[in-house]
Amino acid sequence: MNLLHTYKNGNYTVSIYSDGTKIRETDEDKFISSFPENIDIKISDRCNIGCAYCHENSTRNGEVADFDYEFLYSLKRGTELAIGGGNVFENPKLDAFLKFCKNKGIIANITVNQEHFKDEYYIIFDWIERKEVYGVGISYNGNSEELDEAFKGCEEFKNNCVIHVINGVHSYDEIMKLRNKGYKLLILGYKDLRRGTSYKKEHEDQIKNNQQEIYNNIHKILTAFDVVSFDNLAI
User: Fold this and answer.
1) In Å, how far are 15, 126, 145 from 107, measured between CA atoms?
2) Which one of 10, 34, 70, 110 has the lowest number of neighbouring Cβ atoms within 10 Å?
3) Do the Cβ atoms of 164 and 139 come closer than 8 Å?
């Protein structure tokens, strides 16, 4: 792994590497920061998929962001952005924004649904090669064969990609279709917000069963993937 950025934030030093590793070091008892290291940015509320559990409530007619560059100019080199939607490809300024981030020394990561990834993966891989995007989160739709097809002949890009699954939406069997193929896995907690609230009311038993099955078999999941991570809600 290569060192991408190192910088001082408050009373500690941050080092970020090309494989996503971040190391914080301080000689003091507490880490006290002066500015944010990571920021989530939603650049589009427009999406044609209409997932029933979408906690963002994204729709076909959703708005897209007009970037506030005054705010972006205040970001420090090495700041990480998690860029998402909706469908990020609906924002016509995305490509220019990624170039801005690279020139500013900002580390851009994007999250896309697998439905959009299968159509646009060649653009995403080009961004990775140009070092305009470093990390790609792919929201899994349960079709492992489709995902494998996109990476055929492009295995080297798996290191930059993380497959996102939702605890309660995806079954243990769906997750294990991806096992032992070099994928990194991120298990997200179920967000009981907006459409996620109505979906939970209609599918509560199924959600609980999926969550329990993942809980009972987490040791098998941990050994089936090169990397398994969780958000706080999933923990």
Assistant:
1) 13, 16, 30
2) 70
3) yes
- Rounded Cα distance between 227 and 151, Å, is 18
The rounded distance, in Å, linking the Cα atoms of 18 and 1 is 5
- Cα 15 from Cα 22, distance rounded (Å): 6
Q: Are 44 and 64 in contact (CB under 8 A)?
A: yes
* The pLDDT value given to residue 18: 87
Return all residues near 39 (Cβ < 8 A) that are at least 6 apart.
Answer: 75, 79, 80, 81, 82
pLDDT band at 22 (very low <50, low <70, confident <90, very high): very high
User: pTM here?
Assistant: 0.95
The number of C-alpha atoms within 13 Å of 19 and in the hemisphere containing its C-beta is: 9
User: Order of strands, edge to edge, in the sheet holding 227-230?
Assistant: 38-42, 80-84, 107-113, 135-139, 161-166, 184-188, 227-230
Q: What is the pLDDT of residue 1?
A: 80
**pLDDT tens, 109-152?**
999 999 999 999 999 999 999 999 999 999 999 999 999 999 99
